[in-house]
Specification:
The complex is a heterodimer of chains A (305) and B (416). Chain A has two domains: 112 residues, Rossmann fold, CATH 3.40.50.720; 150 residues, Succinyl-CoA synthetase domains (Rossmann fold, 3-Layer(aba) Sandwich). Chain A contains nine helices and 14 strands. Chain A has a seven-stranded mixed β-sheet, sandwiched between helices. Chain A has a seven-stranded mixed β-sheet with strand order 9-8-11-10-12-13-14, sandwiched between helices. Chain A starts with 10 loop residues before the first strand and ends in a 16-residue tail after the last helix. Chain B contains 14 helices and 18 strands. In chain B, 38% of the residues lie in helices and 25% in strands. Chain B folds into three domains: 162 residues, 2-Layer Sandwich (D-amino Acid Aminotransferase, Chain A, domain 1); 77 residues, ATP-grasp fold, A domain (Dna Ligase, domain 1); 149 residues, 3-Layer(aba) Sandwich (Rossmann fold). In chain B, strands 7, 8, 9, 10, 11 and 12 form a six-stranded antiparallel β-sheet that branches. A four-stranded antiparallel β-sheet of chain B has the order 1-6-2-3, covered by helices on one side. A four-stranded parallel β-sheet of chain B has the order 14-16-17-18, sandwiched between helices. In chain B, α5 packs across α6. The longest helix of chain B is centred in the middle third of the chain and has 20 residues. Classes of the chains: A alpha/beta (305), B alpha+beta (416). The interface between A and B is large, with 62 and 54 residues.
């Protein structure tokens, strides 16, 4: 099994006719994700991805016609909050927003509506998520994965790729890799994902990747200390050398008033039983030391059709 | 984006909050003129405040009192041109000197964990709120504004009462607290802080005396992601106070932060860029910058990034770390070859490209005789090693090094 996305994911791509949307929709389709619909207001009735995917004017129509249950958003920042709300209103249960540079106060207004509808938002400003061998909903390169039972949750994009590649190289496969996004206001936190991993019978180890800013890693650590005892846990925190008061690329990555430092996060994670790596390359070793078995040498990872 | 105090005061005043009069001056003569107006309007003197975006200006001598316009001209002359934490003071705010009876703190900030706007108040004004939070957390009242309804009246009253205000000041504080949230929402700020909010004793032009609750100092930072919809605020950006490299980086849409080390970093993705810095440090070096070229970066972005890194004379080596996803490795490799042929000076470069089209990238880099690395750890170690080799090869102390000499960069230059 996996969390959030899998073989039963029926995906609608909001903004499928845009440059980004089309490019990544092709990659997701090639990975094996079931893309059942796309939307673009004014282009309803057309077909995308070489005629394989119907385009609708609204998410509501896409859901009614195709039974879409998951949406991914590739529309520009000014239109993205509306796109999230449209998906939620149409009854989509899982909305993944890739778009970056959405104003924080827009997200503040969006979140209560998402919660009220009982939907889950991943992102914004995130690379999406992949359940290796089952479904990829986002922009994480499909080639870096290996099927397995380690769950990965991260605030970053390429840093996640770095970590996942290192796990795969070491023979440690992943159940689901979730990029939750680098913004200050996000739909799903480290803690939310850890809870899902804890309930997933096929996730037997977790990797938490965090960075400076906020206190989400500490919050996740505190919960894990009580609820993930005995589960192999490794972590990596980026930004040990980041200066205070500077936003390190991600809107949420800032140390302010002495809080949100890498040191505080590392200490909280270690206190909760996480082994904290100093480099992305060390994570696999730290998992092995806690009993995680790598795939046998020469074992062919399950292919993706 | 941080706003200067005088801009923050403008936004508060525009929202109807009580802000004392005062104007900004760029010369001692202008400061004298503003002082003359304020004093003839009833002020007993003026305060001349350096307008810089760094903290600690009071301690640095950037805030001074003046009793007369001549005095104001003199102290403005002292403050203008002075350097505060490396920033040259180019403007001063001239405002009435206040007879302060009590100082409070009132601020609105984005609370990430609660996903709400948090309004904080404290009767301990005039000091940093972080310090109060550490030493006397119970002295701070905290209320969350509703994302759709804003700060409600009863919540604002709660804050005003907790500050210990009485009489007419209670209603004033309610209006100010609600006003702060309004200023935050209307301008897409992530922080609006009045510190101190003060009861000041003042004499008006007709000779009557009164106590008033006023916003004496204001700090506002704006959400950079929202600036595209606030062109009027973007126009308030103080380019004088910015590093030219920062301005250049913003124009190229590159995330760049200048640091103090000698190893320039060029990376795709913010988390990986921080990690690269951390690994440079771990290998015994010091990163010269944080630089994220963004997703899908092309050759021209790579060239612009290289220019930004090399503009720092302390940079002795460049570490390029690209994990191709949307970004194509071969595109970056071509950009590097092109940029190196045009760069202003020669520094050794260590390149690590993995992911999308990494094989093609390797071929391009090898043909151009770039030094490459497979892992990030290895790349960091190499970058640190070449800076040492450069130093030893030049036989010079840091600061007097001959860039581009030494075995390391000669080996790299062989392909050209």
């Amino acid at each position: 099994m996996s969390i959030l996305v899998g073989r039963d994911t029926r995906l609608v791509v909001q903004g499928i006719t845009g440059r980004e949307g089309e490019f990544h929709a092709r990659q997701m389709q090639a990975y094996g994700t079931q893309i059942v619909a796309g939307t673009r207001f004014g282009k309803g009735g057309q077909r995308a991805l070489d005629g394989t995917v119907p385009v609708f004017d609204t998410v509501r129509e896409a859901v009614a016609e195709t039974g879409a249950n998951t949406s991914i958003i590739y529309v520009p920042a000014p239109a993205a909050p509306d796109a999230i709300l449209e998906a939620v209103d149409a009854g989509i249960g899982l909305v993944v927003c890739i778009t970056e540079r959405i104003p924080a106060l827009d997200m503040l207004r969006v979140m209560p509506v998402v919660r009220e509808a009982g939907a889950r938002l991943i992102g914004p400003n995130c690379p999406g998520l992949t359940s290796p061998g089952r479904a990829k909903v986002g922009i994480i390169p499909g080639s870096i994965h290996l099927e397995g039972s380690t769950g990965v949750v991260s605030r970053s994009g390429t840093l996640t790729y770095e970590v996942v590649q290192a796990l795969t190289d070491a023979g440690i496969g992943q159940s689901t890799c979730v990029g939750i996004g680098g913004d200050p206001i996000i739909g799903t936190t480290h803690l939310d994902v850890l809870k899902l991993f804890a309930e997933d019978p096929e996730t037997n180890a977790v990797v938490l990747i965090g960075e400076i800013g906020g206190a989400a890693e500490e919050e996740a650590a505190a919960w894990a200390a009580d609820h993930l005892q005995g589960v192999p846990k490794a972590a990596f925190i980026a930004g040990r050398t980041a200066p205070e008061g500077k936003r390190m690329g991600h809107a949420g990555a800032i140390i302010s008033g002495g809080s949100g430092t890498a040191a505080a996060k590392v200490a909280a994670l270690e206190a909760a039983g996480f082994r904290v790596a100093e480099t992305p390359g060390q994570i696999a070793e730290l998992l092995r030391e806690q009993g995680v078995q790598p795939a046998r040498p020469g074992q062919v990872p399950a292919g993706v059709q | 984006m941080k706003l200067q105090e005088f801009h923050a005061r403008e936004l508060l005043a525009a929202a109807g909050l009580p802000v004392p009069p005062g104007r900004v001056a760029a010369t001692p003569g202008e400061a004298a003129e503003v002082a003359r107006e304020l004093i003839s309007g009833g002020a007993t003197g003026v305060v001349v405040k350096a307008q810089v975006l760094v903290g600690g200006r009071g301690k640095a001598g950037g805030v001074k009192l003046a009793a007369t316009p001549e005095d104001a001209e003199r102290v403005a002359g002292e403050i203008l041109g002075m350097s505060i934490k490396g920033i040259t003071v180019r403007k001063v705010l001239v405002a009435p000197a206040s007879d302060i009876r009590h100082e409070y703190y009132l601020g609105a900030v984005l609370d990430r964990a609660a996903q709400r706007i948090l309004v904080m108040g404290s009767a301990e004004g005039g000091v940093e709120i972080e310090q109060v939070a550490k030493e006397k957390p119970e002295a701070i009242v905290r209320v969350h504004a509703h994302p759709h309804l804003g700060l409600l009246d009863f919540q604002a009253r709660q804050v005003a009462l907790a500050l210990g205000l009485t009489g007419p000041f209670l209603a004033d504080a309610v209006a100010i607290a609600k006003g702060l949230v309004r200023v935050m929402v209307e301008n897409d700020a992530d922080l609006v802080e009045v510190n101190p909010l003060a009861i000041v004793h003042q004499r008006t032009t007709d000779g009557t005396e009164e106590d008033r609750l006023v916003c004496l100092d204001a700090k506002i930072t704006l959400d950079d992601s929202a600036l595209p919809r606030h062109p009027d605020l973007e126009a308030r950006r103080d380019l004088d106070e910015e590093d030219p490299a920062d301005i250049e980086a913003r124009e190229q849409e590159i995330n760049f932060i200048h640091l103090d080390g000698t190893i320039g970093c060029m990376v795709n993705g913010a988390g990986l860029a921080m990690t690269t810095m951390d690994l440079v440090k771990r290998a015994g070096g010091e990163p010269a910058n944080f630089l994220d070229i963004g997703g899908g970066a092309r050759a021209d972005t790579v060239a612009a990034a290289m220019k930004l890194i090399l503009a720092d004379p302390r940079v002795e080596a460049i570490l390029v770390n690209i994990f191709g996803g949307i970004t194509r490795g071969d595109e970056v490799a071509r950009g590097l070859v092109e940029a190196r042929s045009r760069q202003s000076r020669d520094v050794p470069m260590v390149v690590r490209i993995v992911g999308t089209n990494a094989t093609e990238a390797q071929t391009i880099l090898r043909e151009a005789s770039f030094r490459t690395a497979d892992s990030l750890e290895e790349a960091a170690a190499q970058a640190v090693a070449v800076t040492r080799a450069t130093r030893d090869g030049a036989g010079a102390a840091p600061g007097a090094r001959a860039v581009g000499t030494g075995a390391a960069s000669m080996a790299e230059g062989a392909g050209r």
